[in-house]
Structure formats: C-alpha cells, structure tokens
Amino acid sequence: MFRITTVVENTSASKPGFRAEHGLSVLVETEKEKFFFDTGQSDVFIHNARLLNIDLTKIKKVVLSHGHYDHGGGLKYLLDYTKPVVYAHPEVFRERYSKLSDTGKLRYIGIEKREFYEEKGVKFVLDDKPMEVSKNVYTTGFEEMVTDFEEVDKNFVYNKNGVYEKDDVPDDMSLILDTKRGLFIVFGCAHRGIINIIKQAEKTFNKRVFGFIGGTHLGPASDYQRKMVIEELKKMDLEIIGPSHCTGLKMTAELYCIFKDKVIFNNVGTVLEV
Ligand SMILES: [Fe+2]
Ligand SMILES: [Fe+2]
Fold this sequence. Notes:
The chain is an alpha/beta fold. It has a single domain, classed as Ribonuclease Z/Hydroxyacylglutathione hydrolase-like (Metallo-beta-lactamase, Chain A). The protein contains seven helices and 17 strands. Strands 8-5-4-3-2-1-17 form a seven-stranded mixed sheet. It is globular, with a radius of gyration of 17 Å. The model has no long low-confidence stretch (mean pLDDT 97). One fe (ii) ion binds next to helix 2.
C-alpha cells in the first residue's frame, strides 16, 4: 500500500492556508519511508508540506521527474531541512528555454546547475535506466516514443555547446508503483506522452497499469494529440485517472465528461491510497 499526497499543484483543495502554483510535487509514503517526487517551483512546497505535517528533516530521497523549474525549483528550499539523495536522468541539468509564442523570445525554464546543489550537500544518482527508488517503486528511465500521435512540446529548446537545439526532454521520467492491483504511475509532466509511458511501463514490468496521477502536458498539446490520447485511454480501462498540473482545466473537464467517476481532481492536499 502506498499513500500519495499532493503537496504542490496548480490548484488547491479548500483547506485554509494551502498555496497553489504552476508546478507539481507529491509525497509518496511506503511502509518504510517517505520521499518526494518533484518539488514544485518555489518555497510553496515547504509551506504546504508544513501544513500537511510532513517532517522535512526525515526526508532522505527526492526523485526529479525532469529538469524544469516547476518540478525542480523547490529543491533548494528543502536543503535547509535535509540533504537528500536526488534521483534523476543524466540530462536533468540542460540549460533549457521555452520560446514565447507571441514574441519568439526565450524564457529560462531549467533548474540550478549541478554544482549549486552539490555544494549544499545533495548527492545525485543519475541514470537513464529504470532505478529502484524504494521497495516496489521505480523510475521509468528513458521514455521511448512509439506512438505516432504524441510529440514533445515544439517550443522547447536547449543550449547545446552554444547552439540552441530542439529539446526533446529526454530526462522526462515518471514514477512506477508496483502494487497488488497492478502498476500505478505518477507523471511529472509526461513530456514524452502518457500513452508512450503507460505502454512502456506495461512492457517493462509485464503488468497492467490501473491508474495514474500527475501532469500530462495535454494542456498545450494539439487537438489531434488530445483526441488520440482519449481514444487510447478508452481502450485501456483504467480505474483511476488523476490528470493534474499541465493537463489544464479544459482537458481535465473533458476527461471527466468521458471517464466520469474514474477521474479524480488532484489538487494540493489530495491524498490517495493505492
Ligand atoms: Fe510541469
Ligand atoms: Fe515540464
């Protein structure tokens, strides 16, 4: 049994004092330990964690889904309480930008440099292969793109030796919880496509995925991609669909209209047991 608590998300449950921001952080509790998957973009992460009575000094591990500010930005604030081991993909420190659609200007959307964190006592475990983070908890490792309707956001670029190249976010990783019911996935942003990730998890573990929560990046995706993802989800017979963060309210509403009570609205303060 795993307990998953959403600590940072774009919207908040109606408990007094919670703060919301564009970003994601969830606390995963196993029988033996607690760790974070992502850290939101700011100290909102710390504020909400304290309201949720999470003892930050006891956190020994953090998994970063990818190197975007809205997932890794809160990590530096956690270092006042603990010096965790951080699990991520080797490309997590790319100097990356998003092209603003109106002006074409670049906006920095990466995280701090590796040295910044290491000087403060963080230890990184970087691997593009699946990593066992805790008992029955794994990272996906590098996510292959196999569907023909999912694509990485076209506005992303990164600085590769002084030249800006398209950023396919190869560091995007999701978290897989191997439960008695089957596999449960927590997405960060799912930049490489939720259907790709679900299919890869089922192939790697030879087990059925029964649910997910997290960012799907379907908010900024094309109408075609959204339509095709919905068609694929219909074939999958998932029991829990928890679209969050970069799914956006419009796409979340659309999913609710189709999948009804299988959909959970995953906000700051939402607790789920799987
Ligand atoms: Fe995100
Ligand atoms: Fe992202």
